[in-house]
Design goal:
This protein is an alpha/beta fold. It contains eleven helices and 14 strands. The two termini are 13 Å apart. It binds zinc ion (2 copies). The site of one zinc ion (ZN) has 5 residues, from loops.
Amino acid sequence: MVEIMRMTILASGSKGNSTVVASAETRVLIDAGLSCRELMRRMAIAGEDPAALDAILITHEHQDHVAGLSVLARKLHIPVYFTEPTHRAWVRQMTPRSTITYAKWLERVQQEKEERAARVAAEMAGDDGSGDLDSSALQLAAAAEDAEEAAPAKSKADPASLPAVEYFQPGTGFSIGDLLVMPFTTPHDAADPCGFVFESASERQRMAIATDLGYVPPNVKAALKRIDVMLLESNHDLEMLKDGPYPWSVKQRVLSRVGHLSNHATAEFLANEYDGGAEYIVLGHLSEANNAPELALLAAEEAIRERGGLLGNRVLLARQADPLDPICL
Ligand SMILES: [Zn+2]
Ligand SMILES: [Zn+2]
């Protein structure tokens, strides 16, 4: 049986991340870090049908991973998978901090009450009935229906409302259709960040997404075994970051153990820990200010060359500005 698994990287970098992973029967989007419109545009360019997506999975709540999430999920009417802490952090982020006073709030409630009453009164005025019991019962029912109709409209206005939310836990696998998903914890300064390994139902093909991590801890090393297509972070060149435009505090954050992987750290992983089995290694989340694609590529290719026998590994660069061609197995 020919099984097809596919990864289409729509965008990768600190200005937005989003990737489609597809198995024979299931298609998911990992992160939605561009506007809904731009994500739709890129899916069209890459030949991915948005209507065929089954779910959206979120690695963590940073803006470059969730910018278009709510609009896209509502448009496609598909569930969003988060860890519970990530979902909570995202909701907090999406809910504008309310600074109104109690008096203002009371005023608003009163105003809404009056509007409702006015609507019911208008309906009653339009009714030519004699105001007998039956017709007032009808009016009450109509008012109740109005209230029900008003409720979904209200939840639509809630920026954090989603068609459906599913929770997963890092370290515990789950399935979406015929796609097996194994989330793993990553060291990064977010509420509950994770990466993913995706496996076809036959367990013959495996793809991984591992970006936004300060270093490669043992659990990530273990997760990245037997991977056929690996999207791996190669965020910055150490020299460029040190000499670059970022303020010291931001440099410290990027360099920290909950920041991002440098070209050097990625090369070190590839040279010393990686099992060499991938058909494709895609370097991603490259910093535009503190990296150059050719430096990232050079470091990774050198690391692989040192391993001698790994010539079968193709190294690609994910891009920020436009999608990569789908990578098919
Ligand atoms: Zn990121
Ligand atoms: Zn991040």
